[in-house]
Amino acid sequence: MKTRQQTWTRKIAAMISLAAITLPMVTTTAQASTDDLSNHPGVYGYFIDTYQQNVGQNKTPETNPVIGEMSGFAKYWANGQKLDPDMLASNVSQAATITQQRTHAEEERSYLTDVRDLRYNLISGLGPYAGAFIKNADAQTPYTSMPDQPLPLHRHYIKMNWASTTSALGPVVQLVNTTSRSKFSGTGTIKHVVQYERPYRQSTDVKPLPALSKIMAAAGHDDYDFPSGHTTAAFETGETLAYVFPERFQELITRSSEVGYDRVLAGRHSPLAVMGGRMVGTAMTAATLNDANNQETMKQAIKAAHSDALLGAKDSSASDDFADYKTNRDAYRFRMTYGFNQTGDTTQAMRVPKGAEVLLATRLPYLTDTQRRDVLFTTGMPSGYPDMDDAEGWGRLDLFSAANGYGALNDNVTVDMDASKGSFNAQDNWRNDIAGRGRLTKTGTGSLTLSGHNNFAGGLLVKGGALQLATSSAAGKGNVKVNQGSLQLTTQRVTVKGNFQNGKGGQIKLARNGHLTIKKSAKLAGTLKLTAGKVKSGSKVLTFRSRHGKFNHVSGLPKGWHVVYTKNAVKLVK
Protein backbone atom coordinates (compact mmCIF):
# COMPACT_ATOMS: atom_id res chain seq x y z
CA MET A 1 0.00 0.00 0.00
CA LYS A 2 1.33 3.41 -0.94
CA THR A 3 1.88 5.87 1.86
CA ARG A 4 0.32 9.32 1.76
CA GLN A 5 3.80 10.73 1.00
CA GLN A 6 4.31 8.35 -1.95
CA THR A 7 0.84 9.03 -3.35
CA TRP A 8 1.24 12.80 -3.14
CA THR A 9 4.75 12.72 -4.63
CA ARG A 10 3.48 10.64 -7.57
CA LYS A 11 0.53 12.96 -8.21
CA ILE A 12 2.65 16.11 -8.13
CA ALA A 13 5.17 14.54 -10.48
CA ALA A 14 2.41 13.67 -12.95
CA MET A 15 0.96 17.18 -12.88
CA ILE A 16 4.38 18.76 -13.24
CA SER A 17 5.11 16.56 -16.25
CA LEU A 18 1.83 17.54 -17.89
CA ALA A 19 2.20 21.26 -17.27
CA ALA A 20 5.97 21.36 -17.86
CA ILE A 21 6.52 23.52 -14.82
CA THR A 22 8.66 23.45 -11.69
CA LEU A 23 7.67 23.73 -8.07
CA PRO A 24 8.37 27.11 -6.49
CA MET A 25 10.76 27.07 -3.61
CA VAL A 26 11.09 29.50 -0.72
CA THR A 27 12.43 32.71 -2.15
CA THR A 28 15.59 34.25 -0.75
CA THR A 29 14.39 37.80 -1.15
CA ALA A 30 16.83 40.68 -0.81
CA GLN A 31 17.05 42.11 2.69
CA ALA A 32 14.10 44.14 3.89
CA SER A 33 14.59 47.79 4.69
CA THR A 34 12.10 49.93 6.61
CA ASP A 35 10.60 51.02 3.29
CA ASP A 36 10.27 47.39 2.15
CA LEU A 37 8.22 46.57 5.25
CA SER A 38 5.92 49.55 4.87
CA ASN A 39 2.26 49.12 3.97
CA HIS A 40 1.07 49.31 0.36
CA PRO A 41 -2.65 50.10 0.03
CA GLY A 42 -4.98 48.78 -2.60
CA VAL A 43 -7.48 51.01 -4.37
CA TYR A 44 -9.87 50.20 -1.51
CA GLY A 45 -7.34 51.18 1.17
CA TYR A 46 -6.14 48.43 3.53
CA PHE A 47 -8.04 45.17 3.78
CA ILE A 48 -7.91 44.95 7.57
CA ASP A 49 -9.43 48.44 7.80
CA THR A 50 -12.11 48.01 5.14
CA TYR A 51 -13.09 44.31 5.37
CA GLN A 52 -16.57 45.20 6.57
CA GLN A 53 -17.21 46.80 3.18
CA ASN A 54 -17.46 43.34 1.60
CA VAL A 55 -21.24 43.53 1.28
CA GLY A 56 -23.64 43.16 -1.63
CA GLN A 57 -24.11 46.81 -2.50
CA ASN A 58 -20.34 47.35 -2.95
CA LYS A 59 -19.44 45.96 -6.37
CA THR A 60 -16.28 47.79 -7.42
CA PRO A 61 -12.59 47.40 -6.47
CA GLU A 62 -12.68 50.84 -4.89
CA THR A 63 -15.61 50.08 -2.60
CA ASN A 64 -15.12 46.36 -1.83
CA PRO A 65 -11.75 45.05 -0.60
CA VAL A 66 -12.42 41.48 -1.75
CA ILE A 67 -13.13 42.65 -5.29
CA GLY A 68 -10.06 44.86 -5.12
CA GLU A 69 -7.86 42.05 -3.83
CA MET A 70 -9.10 39.73 -6.59
CA SER A 71 -8.85 42.28 -9.40
CA GLY A 72 -5.86 40.47 -10.94
CA PHE A 73 -8.25 37.89 -12.37
CA ALA A 74 -9.55 40.59 -14.70
CA LYS A 75 -6.36 40.11 -16.73
CA TYR A 76 -7.73 36.77 -17.86
CA TRP A 77 -11.53 37.19 -17.76
CA ALA A 78 -13.74 40.27 -17.59
CA ASN A 79 -17.27 41.14 -18.65
CA GLY A 80 -17.84 37.62 -19.96
CA GLN A 81 -14.80 37.82 -22.26
CA LYS A 82 -11.70 35.63 -22.34
CA LEU A 83 -8.86 38.15 -22.29
CA ASP A 84 -6.20 35.47 -21.89
CA PRO A 85 -7.57 32.28 -23.49
CA ASP A 86 -4.33 30.36 -22.94
CA MET A 87 -4.30 30.97 -19.19
CA LEU A 88 -7.97 30.09 -18.84
CA ALA A 89 -7.49 26.94 -20.91
CA SER A 90 -4.58 25.93 -18.71
CA ASN A 91 -6.73 26.55 -15.64
CA VAL A 92 -9.47 24.20 -16.86
CA SER A 93 -6.94 21.67 -18.16
CA GLN A 94 -5.30 21.47 -14.74
CA ALA A 95 -8.72 20.94 -13.15
CA ALA A 96 -9.43 18.16 -15.65
CA THR A 97 -6.15 16.40 -14.91
CA ILE A 98 -6.74 16.50 -11.16
CA THR A 99 -10.27 15.08 -11.47
CA GLN A 100 -9.12 12.34 -13.84
CA GLN A 101 -6.32 11.20 -11.52
CA ARG A 102 -8.17 11.21 -8.20
CA THR A 103 -8.10 8.08 -6.07
CA HIS A 104 -11.07 6.52 -4.28
CA ALA A 105 -9.77 7.87 -0.98
CA GLU A 106 -9.63 11.36 -2.48
CA GLU A 107 -13.16 10.97 -3.79
CA GLU A 108 -14.45 10.17 -0.33
CA ARG A 109 -12.48 12.96 1.31
CA SER A 110 -13.58 15.56 -1.25
CA TYR A 111 -17.20 14.41 -0.88
CA LEU A 112 -17.07 14.90 2.90
CA THR A 113 -15.38 18.27 2.38
CA ASP A 114 -18.29 19.24 0.15
CA VAL A 115 -21.18 18.21 2.39
CA ARG A 116 -19.85 18.89 5.87
CA ASP A 117 -19.93 22.24 7.63
CA LEU A 118 -17.04 24.29 6.30
CA ARG A 119 -15.59 24.69 9.79
CA TYR A 120 -15.88 21.02 10.74
CA ASN A 121 -13.67 20.23 7.75
CA LEU A 122 -10.60 21.63 9.53
CA ILE A 123 -10.75 19.44 12.65
CA SER A 124 -8.67 16.71 10.99
CA GLY A 125 -5.77 19.18 10.89
CA LEU A 126 -5.56 18.84 14.66
CA GLY A 127 -4.37 15.24 14.30
CA PRO A 128 -3.95 13.63 17.75
CA TYR A 129 -5.93 16.50 19.28
CA ALA A 130 -8.91 16.09 16.95
CA GLY A 131 -10.73 13.65 19.21
CA ALA A 132 -10.45 16.00 22.18
CA PHE A 133 -11.68 18.89 20.07
CA ILE A 134 -14.72 16.94 18.86
CA LYS A 135 -15.54 15.90 22.43
CA ASN A 136 -14.84 19.16 24.25
CA ALA A 137 -16.25 21.47 21.57
CA ASP A 138 -19.35 19.29 21.11
CA ALA A 139 -18.44 19.18 17.41
CA GLN A 140 -20.71 17.12 15.19
CA THR A 141 -21.55 16.23 11.62
CA PRO A 142 -24.19 13.94 10.12
CA TYR A 143 -21.88 12.97 7.25
CA THR A 144 -19.47 10.11 7.84
CA SER A 145 -19.17 8.31 4.50
CA MET A 146 -19.75 8.70 0.78
CA PRO A 147 -22.87 7.08 -0.74
CA ASP A 148 -22.55 4.46 -3.46
CA GLN A 149 -25.06 6.25 -5.69
CA PRO A 150 -25.32 9.93 -6.70
CA LEU A 151 -27.22 12.07 -4.26
CA PRO A 152 -30.83 12.80 -5.27
CA LEU A 153 -31.31 15.86 -7.42
CA HIS A 154 -33.10 17.94 -4.80
CA ARG A 155 -31.48 16.65 -1.64
CA HIS A 156 -31.23 19.21 1.14
CA TYR A 157 -28.11 19.25 3.26
CA ILE A 158 -28.67 18.57 6.93
CA LYS A 159 -27.93 21.67 8.97
CA MET A 160 -26.66 21.64 12.56
CA ASN A 161 -24.25 23.61 14.69
CA TRP A 162 -20.77 22.37 13.86
CA ALA A 163 -19.66 22.98 17.48
CA SER A 164 -20.93 24.65 20.64
CA THR A 165 -19.98 28.09 21.91
CA THR A 166 -20.98 26.99 25.44
CA SER A 167 -18.65 23.98 25.49
CA ALA A 168 -15.28 23.73 27.23
CA LEU A 169 -13.74 24.99 23.98
CA GLY A 170 -16.50 27.54 23.45
CA PRO A 171 -14.19 30.54 23.08
CA VAL A 172 -12.32 28.74 20.28
CA VAL A 173 -15.60 27.96 18.53
CA GLN A 174 -16.73 31.55 18.98
CA LEU A 175 -13.55 32.96 17.45
CA VAL A 176 -13.79 30.61 14.47
CA ASN A 177 -17.41 31.65 13.99
CA THR A 178 -16.42 35.30 14.21
CA THR A 179 -13.93 34.82 11.38
CA SER A 180 -15.65 32.40 9.03
CA ARG A 181 -19.31 33.16 9.63
CA SER A 182 -19.09 36.92 9.64
CA LYS A 183 -21.55 38.63 7.29
CA PHE A 184 -18.50 40.31 5.76
CA SER A 185 -16.54 37.14 4.93
CA GLY A 186 -18.57 35.73 2.03
CA THR A 187 -17.59 35.41 -1.64
CA GLY A 188 -21.09 35.73 -3.10
CA THR A 189 -20.69 39.36 -4.12
CA ILE A 190 -17.46 38.95 -6.03
CA LYS A 191 -18.63 35.74 -7.70
CA HIS A 192 -21.58 37.57 -9.20
CA VAL A 193 -19.36 40.45 -10.26
CA VAL A 194 -16.82 38.17 -12.00
CA GLN A 195 -19.33 35.57 -13.31
CA TYR A 196 -16.77 32.93 -14.25
CA GLU A 197 -18.27 29.49 -14.94
CA ARG A 198 -17.46 26.36 -12.99
CA PRO A 199 -14.84 24.18 -14.73
CA TYR A 200 -17.12 21.17 -15.24
CA ARG A 201 -19.39 23.42 -17.31
CA GLN A 202 -16.50 24.58 -19.45
CA SER A 203 -15.16 21.15 -20.37
CA THR A 204 -16.41 17.57 -20.26
CA ASP A 205 -12.80 16.59 -19.47
CA VAL A 206 -13.47 17.87 -15.95
CA LYS A 207 -15.12 14.93 -14.20
CA PRO A 208 -17.62 15.81 -11.44
CA LEU A 209 -17.51 13.62 -8.36
CA PRO A 210 -20.03 10.83 -9.07
CA ALA A 211 -21.80 11.22 -5.73
CA LEU A 212 -22.38 14.91 -6.50
CA SER A 213 -22.91 14.69 -10.26
CA LYS A 214 -26.69 15.17 -10.27
CA ILE A 215 -26.57 18.08 -7.84
CA MET A 216 -23.78 19.76 -9.80
CA ALA A 217 -25.61 19.28 -13.11
CA ALA A 218 -28.76 20.86 -11.68
CA ALA A 219 -27.04 23.87 -10.09
CA GLY A 220 -28.09 27.26 -11.38
CA HIS A 221 -25.93 28.93 -13.99
CA ASP A 222 -25.26 31.75 -11.55
CA ASP A 223 -23.42 29.23 -9.35
CA TYR A 224 -20.00 30.61 -10.22
CA ASP A 225 -16.41 29.46 -9.81
CA PHE A 226 -14.20 32.39 -8.80
CA PRO A 227 -13.17 32.62 -6.02
CA SER A 228 -13.88 29.44 -4.05
CA GLY A 229 -16.04 30.05 -1.00
CA HIS A 230 -15.14 26.69 0.58
CA THR A 231 -11.45 27.49 0.26
CA THR A 232 -11.98 30.96 1.71
CA ALA A 233 -13.76 29.48 4.72
CA ALA A 234 -11.11 26.76 5.08
CA PHE A 235 -8.33 29.31 5.41
CA GLU A 236 -10.42 31.48 7.71
CA THR A 237 -11.03 28.49 9.98
CA GLY A 238 -7.62 26.85 9.63
CA GLU A 239 -5.63 30.02 10.20
CA THR A 240 -7.82 30.99 13.16
CA LEU A 241 -7.27 27.57 14.74
CA ALA A 242 -3.56 27.88 13.95
CA TYR A 243 -3.54 31.22 15.78
CA VAL A 244 -5.11 29.83 18.95
CA PHE A 245 -3.27 26.48 18.74
CA PRO A 246 0.07 27.14 16.99
CA GLU A 247 1.37 23.74 18.05
CA ARG A 248 -0.43 22.53 14.88
CA PHE A 249 0.17 25.64 12.76
CA GLN A 250 1.59 24.04 9.64
CA GLU A 251 -0.69 21.03 9.82
CA LEU A 252 -3.80 23.20 10.03
CA ILE A 253 -2.87 25.45 7.12
CA THR A 254 -1.93 22.37 5.11
CA ARG A 255 -5.43 21.03 5.72
CA SER A 256 -6.78 24.45 4.69
CA SER A 257 -4.98 24.10 1.38
CA GLU A 258 -6.20 20.52 1.07
CA VAL A 259 -9.81 21.70 1.31
CA GLY A 260 -9.11 23.89 -1.72
CA TYR A 261 -7.56 20.91 -3.50
CA ASP A 262 -10.62 18.86 -2.57
CA ARG A 263 -12.78 21.40 -4.40
CA VAL A 264 -10.74 20.86 -7.55
CA LEU A 265 -10.85 17.07 -7.04
CA ALA A 266 -14.64 17.19 -6.90
CA GLY A 267 -14.81 19.21 -10.12
CA ARG A 268 -16.43 22.09 -8.24
CA HIS A 269 -13.66 24.66 -8.71
CA SER A 270 -10.66 25.52 -10.83
CA PRO A 271 -7.13 26.00 -9.43
CA LEU A 272 -7.30 29.78 -9.93
CA ALA A 273 -10.51 29.86 -7.91
CA VAL A 274 -8.99 28.08 -4.92
CA MET A 275 -5.84 30.20 -5.14
CA GLY A 276 -8.13 33.22 -4.89
CA GLY A 277 -9.95 31.61 -1.97
CA ARG A 278 -6.66 31.27 -0.10
CA MET A 279 -5.99 34.97 -0.56
CA VAL A 280 -9.45 36.10 0.56
CA GLY A 281 -9.46 33.72 3.54
CA THR A 282 -6.03 34.86 4.69
CA ALA A 283 -6.90 38.54 4.45
CA MET A 284 -10.20 37.99 6.27
CA THR A 285 -8.48 36.11 9.08
CA ALA A 286 -5.91 38.86 9.54
CA ALA A 287 -8.69 41.46 9.54
CA THR A 288 -10.62 39.58 12.23
CA LEU A 289 -7.53 39.10 14.40
CA ASN A 290 -6.64 42.79 14.10
CA ASP A 291 -10.16 43.97 14.96
CA ALA A 292 -10.16 45.58 18.41
CA ASN A 293 -13.61 44.14 19.11
CA ASN A 294 -12.24 40.58 18.99
CA GLN A 295 -9.23 40.87 21.29
CA GLU A 296 -10.88 39.48 24.42
CA THR A 297 -12.35 36.54 22.50
CA MET A 298 -8.89 35.83 21.10
CA LYS A 299 -7.34 35.76 24.58
CA GLN A 300 -10.02 33.45 25.91
CA ALA A 301 -9.70 31.18 22.88
CA ILE A 302 -5.95 30.80 23.37
CA LYS A 303 -6.49 30.05 27.06
CA ALA A 304 -9.12 27.41 26.31
CA ALA A 305 -7.01 25.77 23.59
CA HIS A 306 -4.10 25.38 26.01
CA SER A 307 -6.17 23.88 28.79
CA ASP A 308 -6.78 20.19 29.46
CA ALA A 309 -9.68 20.41 27.01
CA LEU A 310 -7.24 20.38 24.06
CA LEU A 311 -3.50 20.70 24.63
CA GLY A 312 -3.69 18.47 27.69
CA ALA A 313 -5.80 15.82 25.93
CA LYS A 314 -3.48 14.56 23.20
CA ASP A 315 -4.20 11.05 21.93
CA SER A 316 -0.85 9.75 20.73
CA SER A 317 -2.47 6.62 19.34
CA ALA A 318 -4.79 8.54 17.00
CA SER A 319 -4.13 8.62 13.26
CA ASP A 320 -2.70 11.82 11.86
CA ASP A 321 -2.97 12.57 8.14
CA PHE A 322 -0.57 15.47 8.60
CA ALA A 323 2.18 13.81 10.61
CA ASP A 324 4.79 13.98 7.86
CA TYR A 325 6.46 17.39 7.55
CA LYS A 326 7.83 16.86 4.04
CA THR A 327 4.45 15.73 2.71
CA ASN A 328 2.82 18.83 4.19
CA ARG A 329 5.51 21.12 2.82
CA ASP A 330 5.38 19.70 -0.71
CA ALA A 331 1.59 19.71 -0.80
CA TYR A 332 1.23 23.26 0.54
CA ARG A 333 3.91 24.60 -1.77
CA PHE A 334 2.32 23.04 -4.85
CA ARG A 335 -1.09 24.41 -3.92
CA MET A 336 0.32 27.93 -3.67
CA THR A 337 0.59 28.06 -7.48
CA TYR A 338 -0.91 24.79 -8.78
CA GLY A 339 2.01 24.55 -11.17
CA PHE A 340 1.25 27.68 -13.17
CA ASN A 341 4.18 29.44 -14.77
CA GLN A 342 5.20 32.99 -13.86
CA THR A 343 3.47 34.77 -16.71
CA GLY A 344 3.39 38.19 -15.07
CA ASP A 345 6.05 40.65 -13.92
CA THR A 346 8.73 38.63 -12.12
CA THR A 347 10.65 41.67 -10.85
CA GLN A 348 8.22 43.00 -8.24
CA ALA A 349 9.60 43.32 -4.72
CA MET A 350 7.80 41.43 -1.97
CA ARG A 351 5.11 43.35 -0.11
CA VAL A 352 3.76 42.54 3.33
CA PRO A 353 0.12 43.58 3.87
CA LYS A 354 -0.82 45.83 6.75
CA GLY A 355 -1.61 43.67 9.78
CA ALA A 356 -0.45 40.37 8.25
CA GLU A 357 2.09 39.92 11.04
CA VAL A 358 -0.75 38.98 13.41
CA LEU A 359 -0.97 35.62 11.63
CA LEU A 360 2.42 34.70 13.14
CA ALA A 361 1.89 36.29 16.56
CA THR A 362 1.49 33.01 18.43
CA ARG A 363 3.68 30.87 16.18
CA LEU A 364 6.70 33.19 16.54
CA PRO A 365 5.81 34.82 19.88
CA TYR A 366 9.39 35.75 20.76
CA LEU A 367 9.71 38.08 17.75
CA THR A 368 8.45 41.65 17.52
CA ASP A 369 5.75 42.70 15.05
CA THR A 370 8.41 44.24 12.83
CA GLN A 371 10.44 41.03 12.94
CA ARG A 372 7.37 38.99 12.04
CA ARG A 373 6.80 41.28 9.05
CA ASP A 374 10.41 40.71 8.08
CA VAL A 375 9.85 36.93 8.28
CA LEU A 376 6.86 37.27 5.95
CA PHE A 377 8.94 39.46 3.63
CA THR A 378 11.87 37.06 3.44
CA THR A 379 9.75 33.94 2.95
CA GLY A 380 7.34 35.43 0.41
CA MET A 381 6.74 33.91 -3.00
CA PRO A 382 8.28 35.36 -6.17
CA SER A 383 6.10 37.66 -8.24
CA GLY A 384 4.54 36.83 -11.59
CA TYR A 385 2.24 33.94 -10.67
CA PRO A 386 -1.41 34.23 -11.77
CA ASP A 387 -3.84 35.83 -9.30
CA MET A 388 -1.16 36.38 -6.68
CA ASP A 389 0.26 39.89 -7.31
CA ASP A 390 -2.37 41.95 -5.51
CA ALA A 391 -1.43 45.47 -4.42
CA GLU A 392 -1.09 44.73 -0.70
CA GLY A 393 0.73 41.41 -0.98
CA TRP A 394 -1.75 38.84 0.36
CA GLY A 395 -1.26 36.47 -2.57
CA ARG A 396 2.46 35.98 -2.08
CA LEU A 397 2.40 35.24 1.66
CA ASP A 398 3.78 31.75 2.27
CA LEU A 399 2.66 31.05 5.83
CA PHE A 400 4.02 27.50 5.82
CA SER A 401 7.55 28.76 5.18
CA ALA A 402 7.06 31.74 7.50
CA ALA A 403 6.35 29.33 10.35
CA ASN A 404 9.92 28.06 9.80
CA GLY A 405 11.44 31.44 10.69
CA TYR A 406 13.42 33.85 8.54
CA GLY A 407 14.20 33.18 4.91
CA ALA A 408 16.96 35.82 5.00
CA LEU A 409 18.52 37.95 7.73
CA ASN A 410 18.70 41.72 8.05
CA ASP A 411 21.93 43.33 9.20
CA ASN A 412 21.24 42.40 12.80
CA VAL A 413 18.48 40.09 14.01
CA THR A 414 18.23 39.45 17.75
CA VAL A 415 16.07 36.59 18.97
CA ASP A 416 15.19 36.87 22.66
CA MET A 417 13.44 33.76 23.96
CA ASP A 418 12.01 33.37 27.48
CA ALA A 419 11.78 29.67 28.33
CA SER A 420 9.56 30.37 31.34
CA LYS A 421 6.72 31.29 28.95
CA GLY A 422 6.73 27.77 27.50
CA SER A 423 5.76 26.54 24.04
CA PHE A 424 7.71 28.21 21.22
CA ASN A 425 9.21 30.73 23.63
CA ALA A 426 11.05 27.82 25.20
CA GLN A 427 12.02 25.88 22.09
CA ASP A 428 11.69 26.39 18.35
CA ASN A 429 13.16 25.13 15.10
CA TRP A 430 13.91 27.28 12.04
CA ARG A 431 13.86 24.92 9.07
CA ASN A 432 14.36 27.43 6.25
CA ASP A 433 17.58 27.79 4.28
CA ILE A 434 18.52 31.25 5.53
CA ALA A 435 20.29 33.68 3.20
CA GLY A 436 21.33 37.32 3.56
CA ARG A 437 24.18 39.43 4.83
CA GLY A 438 23.02 39.79 8.44
CA ARG A 439 24.01 38.34 11.80
CA LEU A 440 21.83 36.30 14.15
CA THR A 441 22.13 37.07 17.85
CA LYS A 442 20.54 34.62 20.28
CA THR A 443 19.64 35.91 23.75
CA GLY A 444 17.32 34.87 26.57
CA THR A 445 16.81 31.45 28.08
CA GLY A 446 15.05 29.48 25.36
CA SER A 447 16.51 27.12 22.77
CA LEU A 448 16.54 27.86 19.02
CA THR A 449 17.48 25.21 16.45
CA LEU A 450 18.75 26.05 12.97
CA SER A 451 18.11 23.10 10.69
CA GLY A 452 18.38 24.67 7.25
CA HIS A 453 21.32 24.76 4.85
CA ASN A 454 22.24 28.35 5.58
CA ASN A 455 24.50 30.82 3.81
CA PHE A 456 23.86 34.09 5.65
CA ALA A 457 27.12 36.01 5.93
CA GLY A 458 26.90 37.96 9.19
CA GLY A 459 27.62 35.11 11.58
CA LEU A 460 26.22 33.93 14.90
CA LEU A 461 26.42 35.45 18.36
CA VAL A 462 25.15 33.47 21.35
CA LYS A 463 24.47 35.57 24.45
CA GLY A 464 22.03 33.34 26.29
CA GLY A 465 20.05 30.12 26.19
CA ALA A 466 20.90 27.50 23.58
CA LEU A 467 21.50 27.70 19.86
CA GLN A 468 21.41 24.28 18.24
CA LEU A 469 22.96 23.53 14.84
CA ALA A 470 21.22 20.62 13.15
CA THR A 471 22.93 20.58 9.73
CA SER A 472 26.54 20.83 8.63
CA SER A 473 25.95 24.32 7.18
CA ALA A 474 23.54 25.63 9.81
CA ALA A 475 26.05 28.25 11.02
CA GLY A 476 26.09 30.04 7.67
CA LYS A 477 29.21 31.71 6.29
CA GLY A 478 30.30 34.11 9.02
CA ASN A 479 32.07 34.13 12.37
CA VAL A 480 30.60 32.36 15.41
CA LYS A 481 30.96 33.71 18.94
CA VAL A 482 29.56 32.20 22.15
CA ASN A 483 29.65 34.73 24.99
CA GLN A 484 27.05 33.16 27.27
CA GLY A 485 24.78 30.18 26.89
CA SER A 486 25.40 27.13 24.77
CA LEU A 487 26.17 26.27 21.16
CA GLN A 488 25.02 22.71 20.58
CA LEU A 489 25.73 20.39 17.65
CA THR A 490 22.78 18.05 17.13
CA THR A 491 24.29 16.60 13.97
CA GLN A 492 27.65 14.85 13.85
CA ARG A 493 29.56 17.39 11.76
CA VAL A 494 29.21 21.17 11.55
CA THR A 495 31.39 23.68 9.71
CA VAL A 496 32.08 27.26 10.80
CA LYS A 497 33.35 29.06 7.72
CA GLY A 498 34.72 32.06 9.61
CA ASN A 499 36.47 32.52 12.97
CA PHE A 500 35.21 30.90 16.17
CA GLN A 501 35.32 32.17 19.73
CA ASN A 502 34.02 30.54 22.89
CA GLY A 503 34.04 32.99 25.80
CA LYS A 504 34.45 32.25 29.51
CA GLY A 505 30.69 32.06 29.97
CA GLY A 506 30.10 30.02 26.84
CA GLN A 507 29.65 26.32 26.27
CA ILE A 508 30.12 24.07 23.24
CA LYS A 509 28.13 20.86 23.37
CA LEU A 510 28.72 18.01 20.94
CA ALA A 511 28.91 14.24 20.82
CA ARG A 512 32.24 12.49 21.54
CA ASN A 513 32.27 11.36 17.91
CA GLY A 514 31.12 14.76 16.66
CA HIS A 515 33.29 17.26 14.83
CA LEU A 516 33.28 21.04 14.62
CA THR A 517 35.33 22.24 11.64
CA ILE A 518 36.51 25.85 11.97
CA LYS A 519 37.86 27.14 8.67
CA LYS A 520 39.74 30.04 10.27
CA SER A 521 41.00 30.78 13.79
CA ALA A 522 39.65 29.53 17.13
CA LYS A 523 39.75 31.31 20.50
CA LEU A 524 38.88 28.84 23.24
CA ALA A 525 37.72 29.33 26.83
CA GLY A 526 34.61 28.39 28.78
CA THR A 527 33.27 24.82 28.66
CA LEU A 528 33.43 21.90 26.29
CA LYS A 529 30.63 19.46 27.09
CA LEU A 530 30.82 16.04 25.44
CA THR A 531 27.83 13.73 25.16
CA ALA A 532 27.50 10.03 24.45
CA GLY A 533 29.13 8.61 21.33
CA LYS A 534 31.77 6.06 20.37
CA VAL A 535 35.23 7.49 20.12
CA LYS A 536 38.70 6.36 19.09
CA SER A 537 41.85 7.56 20.78
CA GLY A 538 43.24 10.50 18.84
CA SER A 539 39.91 11.49 17.31
CA LYS A 540 39.45 15.20 16.70
CA VAL A 541 36.39 17.05 18.02
CA LEU A 542 37.52 20.49 16.82
CA THR A 543 39.81 21.42 13.96
CA PHE A 544 40.95 24.92 12.97
CA ARG A 545 43.59 26.86 11.08
CA SER A 546 45.05 28.33 14.26
CA ARG A 547 44.19 28.42 17.96
CA HIS A 548 44.46 30.71 20.95
CA GLY A 549 43.62 29.50 24.48
CA LYS A 550 42.08 26.36 25.93
CA PHE A 551 38.76 25.35 27.45
CA ASN A 552 38.48 26.15 31.15
CA HIS A 553 36.46 23.02 31.74
CA VAL A 554 35.76 19.79 29.85
CA SER A 555 32.96 17.41 30.90
CA GLY A 556 31.66 14.14 29.54
CA LEU A 557 35.00 12.44 28.92
CA PRO A 558 35.06 8.66 29.39
CA LYS A 559 37.04 7.51 32.41
CA GLY A 560 40.75 7.58 31.73
CA TRP A 561 40.47 9.91 28.73
CA HIS A 562 41.76 13.48 28.41
CA VAL A 563 41.91 16.36 25.94
CA VAL A 564 45.02 17.20 23.94
CA TYR A 565 45.45 20.58 22.21
CA THR A 566 47.53 20.84 19.05
CA LYS A 567 48.11 23.70 16.67
CA ASN A 568 45.18 22.67 14.48
CA ALA A 569 42.93 20.43 16.58
CA VAL A 570 41.41 19.42 19.89
CA LYS A 571 41.81 15.66 20.31
CA LEU A 572 40.40 13.05 22.66
CA VAL A 573 43.11 10.72 23.89
CA LYS A 574 43.07 7.68 26.16
From TrEMBL:
Q: Where is the signal peptide?
A: 1-32
Highest rank taxon of the organism: Bacteria
InterPro entries per the record? Autotrns_rpt, PAP2/HPO, PAP2/HPO_sf, Pectin_lyase_fold/virulence
Q: Does the keyword Metal-binding apply?
A: no
* UniProt KW keywords: Signal
Q: For the Phosphatidic acid phosphatase type 2/haloperoxidase domain, which residue ranges apply?
A: 169-289
Keyword Ubl conjugation assigned: no
NCBIfam families, alphabetized = autotrns_rpt
- Entry protein name: Membrane-associated phospholipid phosphatase
Species in which this protein is naturally found: Levilactobacillus senmaizukei DSM 21775 = NBRC 103853
